[in-house]
Design goal:
This protein has about 280 residues and is mostly helical. The protein contains nine helices and three strands, in the order αααααβααββαα.
């Protein structure tokens, strides 16, 4: 008799595969299992309440406990912190991983291939002052430049601001780098979960290309091509997004949009043959 796996069993392997790099990051950051497991309780509770509300069900302690697997005493204990977690989810949906003014200046600058990597600080466009004010009038251009210098992505020499392209790598010391990673990965996963679990409605773009059996030299060639493609994608999307953002500045029901691209390479795993070769 064939026994079908339970719904939880059917996604556990995939969920654990997704969790592996997250666990590695936490271990390298000093976060252990007990601390993370405790922090997950209000997250499970908050998401269970959202799911019950989505299905038109009342979020009683029993319903939450049944759906989330949390003990009733945990449901009662974490209701308030779960409420705060839900509020953060709604707030972070618009702000978590949103680039800072400095990061937005960098993005707009990179999208302008006709500007080059060195522009005057002051004056009409193309200038750093004009670029910074186009991004936000809440921050003085000098303050934005100082933040970019702190991040190591720009420097000023004799009234000229130089963009340091080689410095655009994630830096764990900077909180913004961690937030950008969290926002990007969370949105990527949310797109995939939506596509897998929502039977109706439009689907999000969530695709990737996979190739194996490659040498390190071939992987490097593909990485170089991916970086070149991203430069074109960035310019094309920013050319479309900037005027749309300006047009929709005071829209009563604003939405956010994210387009991402990533590369990754690693040695292939080849399990050893542990069986006997004798016939």
């Amino acid at each position: 008799m064939n026994i079908s796996p339970s719904p939880s069993q059917s996604v556990m392997d995939e969920a654990l595969a997704i969790a592996e790099p997250l666990v590695l990051w936490m271990l390298r950051s000093g976060v252990g299992y007990a601390e993370f497991a405790q922090a997950l309780k209000p997250v499970f509770l908050a998401q269970a309440r959202l799911e019950l509300a989505r299905n038109g069900q009342r979020d009683s302690d029993s319903a939450i406990s049944l759906l989330s697997g949390l003990h009733r005493k945990d449901v009662r204990a974490f209701r308030e912190s779960a409420h705060q977690a839900m509020a953060r989810v709604k707030e972070d949906g618009s702000s978590w991983g949103k680039p800072s003014a400095a990061n937005q200046v960098v993005t707009r600058w990179l999208s302008r291939d006709d500007w080059g990597d060195c522009i005057p600080f002051s004056g009409d466009a193309p200038s750093f002052e004009a670029l910074a004010r186009a991004v936000s009038k809440d921050f003085h251009p000098r303050a934005v430049l100082q933040e970019m210098q702190r991040l190591g992505v720009a420097r000023e020499v004799d009234g000229q601001v130089q963009l340091l392209r080689e410095a655009f790598v994630p830096d764990a010391k900077h909180k913004e780098s961690r937030e950008l990673l969290a926002g990007s990965v969370a949105d990527h996963l949310a797109a995939g979960v939506h596509n897998l679990s929502e039977a109706s409605g439009p689907k999000f773009l969530e695709q990737s290309v996979f190739a194996d059996g490659l040498s390190a030299e071939s992987v490097q060639e593909l990485n170089l091509m991916a970086n070149a493609l991203w430069a074109h994608v960035l310019q094309a999307v920013m050319a479309k997004a900037v005027p749309l953002c300006d047009r929709d500045l005071h829209h009563p029901a604003p939405q956010r949009f994210r387009l991402g691209l990533f590369t990754f390479s690693a040695p292939e795993f080849k399990p050893e043959n542990t069986g006997d070769n004798a016939s």
